[in-house]
Backbone:
């Protein structure tokens, strides 16, 4: 049987006046039912574009899928008719957006907005859909759901709005839930609640989740697989534990080092990655990360390193990922960090 | 006390992450290095063909108006004086080589009158708007910087002015002050300040809320210094845009007032009073109304297009 | 909600006082125009007795504040004074003319709504297309067009030339005749009065819709599986229309002022034409009375707009003060 979602060498480019922006440049992954994929990277790394392309939410033009394919249960989404795509959207594949403040329509009641996909996809009557919306609100932990459904978005707090967004996404019982930085705009305490809610929902509904975040910590507990993206490309892909404990790409190292790790050390200084992500119009000829990479060698600027399997199911796009000595540099650094942290 | 602006803007904070749909669509975040602001604005203005066309037309009209004395009376004929010996045979001639825009009911050359009418229109546009801008800047600055009671009084006064439909207020004012160019300046200038004051006040307030002004204040800069160094350069862009557009509006207002017989008085030519004269000869001598009308339309349009171009180039957000 | 309305009404009081003071000052001696009796009599020479009689009759010998109080009192009682020339109460004269102006303004608003909204939507939805460029440029032209000139062009073409060419033509003057049904008389004046406003309406509609189309909630709507058209129609229009509807309200009031030009060009017997004629005859009570009525309509429309705004936008309805 075909996997739930296959993304195969996807290239989504934007054709702008200033040049072609290769926002998503050869991304591949598969997602099985009930599993969670974490997509991690900085702003502008192409992670949101990849997700929005799966949803077919990128306006074309300026966007255009140059090559590659997206298959849902073996059927290509890209070659479907617009009408069939819409039948998937919000129904089989649903999305939760980053900013719950602006993602809800200010002039419609919360209940109406949650009922909308049900009326659209499930042919429910107004009253049926409203009742279902109230139930959904209750399920995502909104107290007095009946009354709250009649509220407008501005009467909800940020956390409650994100719960409402989740209820909206869950309405039709989707196979895939794409969450684009669902907690970034929220307070830290609310973040944990929302993540908990999503995990709980996954256990109950068996939905697959694509969790997009710039924060490796967010996907640490949740994800089965992690894909790290940089400048429109996947630079590392593998089982979550593998990526977390045996990272094979210097960019991932950087992300991990810039993360406060409770399991390793609370007192050691965080090391943010230096420099800015490159312009996606004029990418350097070699590895896009090499200008910021502390371990870069001359070879890095020669050609774009391909994403290759290093370990069982663990892929990296670093030329030296197969080199034990190279990888050990990171291990040693982490250890040193631990030691010095211990001394203080 | 800020006047409520009737839009939904205040509820939509800017999305923080560059991966949002808007950023994806525009991709501006990803482009080139920062250029100097003014050079950038000029570059963008140059790209806007309509705005450049507007600017070129404005320059032509200005040159024509300034140099009119040197050539118009000789090539075309005197715009005002009536030659009683030839008036009878020269009146209401249709356009020809001698009189490219024809002649009017008193035998005067229409082209010459249109050329001299440009002087009136430009003068009104510049002087009246200068008056409005001067009062508006003062009032806006007082309201925004001192706030409190100053703000309340000035902005309520502006509200009072806004309660009068503009053209009606201008007509009533001139009716009371008496017709004439000077009173047209006064009317348009006095009626124009509240808009300028509002624009200036809100741009000062928005700059004032910016962090770098807080930073400057924290570093001990004086009020006046902050106003000059930080606020003025940022608040000046909307004023330039607004003033450019207002010149077009002032030219239209003068034309309307003169059309109603309340602006420039005959025999002096103004595009508006020429149209008033033309009304009696609409069928027999349509050229009398065509050319002054085209002159108003193209000149005002030039200012509108230039204003639009400046707005886009300077990235000024404005209510229509 | 009631609190909000009450607040808006309270905020109008200072504006009301300001407006009446300005109008009072404008018709008072010494501020503008010098001697008010001279304003009445114009160039005519009058005897001293008549002069003093006039001063007494118009209460000009009273102190300033008494005059203002009398003025306010008269206003509240709907007394706008007596016309100098027609020896009829101003209120009565204007009351006769008002329905004509109202008819013209309503027709113009209708034109403005239909064409403004449609043009704005087309131009926003088909952004950067030929239609967008056409709409954007023609709104610029309309805004730059002197309305009275547009009126004259229409008169020449559809009135005079069409008649000359033996085509069906339109009446160029007045609001009724034996030849034409009343509605035909309305066509050209209404188009003329609506021209500038339609251009602004289209621009506002366009910019509002464009702004709304860039909002996150539009993306959310698309993510639910709604078609592009449904996203714009169901989710975009309601948000975009709120400022447009309020614009129509304010513009209706502004049109009242614009009628002076349009009615003069078409000899339309409304308040605007009456003002024009009264100015020529120095019949100040009519000018002032008409101005007051129009200003009151503007203020009333402002209030209605504010209230309807609250009905349309839930964020205001539920007591969130934006002011």
Residues:
């Amino acid at each position: 049987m075909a996997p739930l979602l296959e993304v195969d060498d996807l290239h989504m480019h934007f054709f702008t006046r200033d040049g072609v922006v290769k926002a998503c440049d050869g991304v591949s992954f598969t997602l099985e039912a009930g599993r969670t994929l974490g997509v991690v990277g900085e702003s502008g790394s192409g992670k949101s574009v990849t997700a929005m392309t799966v949803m077919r939410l990128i306006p074309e033009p300026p966007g255009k899928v140059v090559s590659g394919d997206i298959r849902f249960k073996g059927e290509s989404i890209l070659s479907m008719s617009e009408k069939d795509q819409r039948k998937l959207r919000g129904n089989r594949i649903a999305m939760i957006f980053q900013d719950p403040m602006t993602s809800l329509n200010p002039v419609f009641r919360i209940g109406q907005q949650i009922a909308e996909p049900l009326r659209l996809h499930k042919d429910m009557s107004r009253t049926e859909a409203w009742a279902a919306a109230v139930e959904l609100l209750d399920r995502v932990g909104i107290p007095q759901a009946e009354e709250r459904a009649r509220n407008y978005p501005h009467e909800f707090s940020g956390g409650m709005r994100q719960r409402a967004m989740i209820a909206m996404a869950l309405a039709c019982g989707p196979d895939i839930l794409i969450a684009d930085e669902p907690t970034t705009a929220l307070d830290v305490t609310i973040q944990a609640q929302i993540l908990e809610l999503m995990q709980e929902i996954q256990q109950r509904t068996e939905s697959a989740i694509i969790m997009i975040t710039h924060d490796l910590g967010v996907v640490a507990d949740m994800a089965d697989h992690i894909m790290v993206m940089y400048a429109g490309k996947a630079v590392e892909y593998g089982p979550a534990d593998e990526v977390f404990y045996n990272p094979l790409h210097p960019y991932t190292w950087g992300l991990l080092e810039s993360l406060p790790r409770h399991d390793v050390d609370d007192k050691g200084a965080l090391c943010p990655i230096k420099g800015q992500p490159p312009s996606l119009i004029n990418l350097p000829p070699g590895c896009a990360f090499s200008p910021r990479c502390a371990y870069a060698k001359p070879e890095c600027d020669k050609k774009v390193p391909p994403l290759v399997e290093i370990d069982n199911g663990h892929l990296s796009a670093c030329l030296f990922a197969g080199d034990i000595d190279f990888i050990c540099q990171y291990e040693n650094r982490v250890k040193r960090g631990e030691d010095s942290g211990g001394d203080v | 006390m800020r006047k409520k602006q009737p839009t939904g803007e205040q509820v939509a904070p800017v999305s923080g992450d560059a991966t949002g749909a808007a950023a994806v669509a525009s991709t501006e975040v990803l482009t080139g290095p920062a250029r100097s602001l003014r050079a950038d604005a000029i570059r963008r203005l140059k790209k806007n063909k309509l705005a450049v066309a507007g600017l070129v037309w404005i320059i032509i009209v200005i040159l024509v108006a300034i140099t009119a004395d040197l050539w118009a009376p000789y090539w075309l004929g005197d715009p005002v004086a009536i030659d009683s010996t030839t008036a009878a045979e020269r009146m209401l001639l249709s356009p020809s080589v001698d009189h490219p825009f024809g002649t009017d009911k008193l035998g005067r050359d229409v082209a010459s009158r249109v050329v001299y009418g440009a002087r009136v229109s430009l003068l009104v546009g510049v002087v009246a708007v200068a008056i409005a801008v001067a009062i508006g800047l003062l009032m806006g600055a007082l309201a925004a910087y001192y706030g409190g009671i100053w703000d309340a009084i000035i902005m309520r006064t502006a509200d009072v002015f806004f309660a009068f439909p503009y053209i009606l207020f201008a007509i009533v004012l001139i009716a009371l002050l008496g017709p004439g160019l000077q009173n047209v300046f006064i009317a348009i200038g006095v009626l124009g300040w509240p808009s300028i004051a509002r624009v200036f006040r809100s741009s000062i307030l928005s700059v004032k809320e910016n962090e770098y002004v807080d930073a400057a204040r924290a570093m001990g800069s004086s009020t006046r210094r902050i106003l000059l160094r930080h606020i003025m350069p940022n608040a000046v862009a909307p004023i330039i845009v607004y003033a450019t557009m207002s010149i077009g509006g002032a030219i239209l207002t003068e034309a309307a007032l003169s059309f109603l017989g309340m602006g420039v008085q005959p025999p002096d030519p103004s595009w508006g009073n020429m149209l008033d004269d033309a009304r009696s000869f609409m069928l027999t001598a349509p050229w009398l109304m065509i050319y002054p009308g085209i002159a108003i339309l193209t000149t005002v349009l030039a200012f509108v297009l230039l204003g639009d171009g400046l707005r886009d180039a300077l990235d000024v957000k404005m209510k229509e | 909600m009631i609190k909000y309305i009450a607040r808006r009404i309270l905020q109008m009081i200072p504006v009301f006082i300001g407006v009446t003071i300005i109008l009072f000052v404008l018709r008072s001696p010494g501020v503008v125009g010098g001697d008010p009796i001279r304003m009445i009599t114009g160039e005519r020479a009058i005897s001293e007795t008549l002069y003093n009689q006039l001063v007494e009759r118009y209460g000009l010998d009273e102190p300033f504040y008494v005059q203002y109080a009398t003025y306010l009192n008269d206003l509240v009682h709907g007394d706008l004074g007596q016309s100098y020339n027609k020896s009829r109460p101003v209120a009565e004269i204007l009351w006769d003319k008002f329905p004509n102006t109202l008819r013209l303004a309503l027709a113009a608003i209708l034109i403005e709504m239909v064409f403004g909204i449609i043009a704005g939507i087309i131009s926003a939805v088909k952004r950067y297309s030929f239609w967008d460029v056409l709409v954007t440029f023609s709104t610029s032209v309309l805004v730059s067009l002197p309305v009275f000139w547009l009126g004259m062009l229409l008169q020449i073409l559809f009135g005079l030339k069409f008649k000359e060419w033996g085509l069906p033509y339109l009446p160029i003057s007045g609001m009724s005749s034996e030849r034409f049904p009343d509605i035909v008389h309305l066509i050209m004046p209404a188009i003329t009065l609506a021209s500038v406003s339609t251009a602004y309406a289209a621009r506002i509609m366009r910019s509002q819709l464009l702004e709304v189309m860039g909002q996150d909630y539009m993306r959310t709507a698309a993510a639910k599986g709604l078609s592009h058209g449904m996203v714009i129609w169901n989710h975009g229009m309601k948000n975009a229309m709120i400022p447009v509807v309020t614009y129509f309200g304010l513009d209706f009031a502004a049109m009242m002022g614009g009628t002076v030009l349009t009615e003069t060009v078409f000899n339309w017997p409304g308040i605007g034409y009456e003002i024009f004629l009264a100015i020529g005859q120095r019949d100040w009570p009519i000018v002032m009375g008409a101005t007051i009525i129009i200003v009151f309509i503007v203020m009333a429309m402002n209030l209605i707009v504010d209230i309807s705004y609250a009905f349309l936008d839930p964020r205001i309805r539920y007591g969130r003060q934006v002011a």
